[in-house]
Structure formats: C-alpha cells, structure tokens
Amino acid sequence: MCALLQIEPGGGPLSRRRSKNPTTAISITLPRSLLDRVDGELTRLQSRSAWIAEAIDMKLDGFDTIAEASNTKLLAVLWMRAAITRDTYELLLTSLDPSVEP
User: Which of 5, 21, 33, 36 is deepest in the core (most CB within 10 A)?
Assistant: First the structure.
C-alpha cells in the first residue's frame, strides 16, 4: 500500500490547521440528575462537551429567550438538538445575512 504525502511549497509536509480557539480539557462535578438530563438531550452522534459549551455560551451571552438569540445561536441549538445535520448547519451558517442579526 502506498501513502501519498502532501508537500508544502517550502518542501516540508503540510501541518494540521491550528484552531483559532483551541479547546482545553477540564474536570467538573455535576449532580447525577443534571448529567442524566443533559445526556437525555443528546443523540448518539452529538458531543456532550459541545452541548455543554453551547449551554455555557448561551448563559454567558445572556440568552434567555428565543427572541434574544442570534440567528447563529438558533442554528447551533438546532444542530445540538439533532434537528439539522452538521452539513445543513454549515450551509445555513454561511448563507446568513449579518445585517439581520438582532
């Protein structure tokens, strides 16, 4: 079996693109009942970490009602609930009109 290696113009192998907002692993303690509620919201394909990060983001941004949520946040909630696929989320995200944000 032969593997292809991509080479940068400078001659070295391509490196992975670095995240502009890298993640950090943390450890938290939650009541079992709360963890069960979170897990009940997730599908097999959803990330618990991503769901919790979105919930924290929404709390810190003061998101209390749907009317206050940005279009981007609403899309993220739909994706976290598995109401839309990641492909649909990304497609809709790129087509949002920034002038319509609340």
Answer: 36
CA 25 – CA 1 distance, rounded (Å): 36
Query: What type of residue is 8?
Result: E
* Domain-located, residue 23: no
Q: Which domain holds residue 87?
A: 46-97
pLDDT of residue 1: 47
Q: Is residue 56 part of a domain?
A: yes
| CA–CA separation, 89 and 77 (whole Å) | 10
Measured in residues, the chain has a length of 102
Q: What is the domain count for the chain?
A: 1
Taking 70 as the pLDDT cut, the residues of the chain under it are 1-16, 63-64, 99-102
Helix axes of 86-95 and 71-80: crossing angle, nearest 10 degrees: 170
CB 27 within 8 A of CB 66: no
Tell me, what's the pLDDT at 46?
A: 86
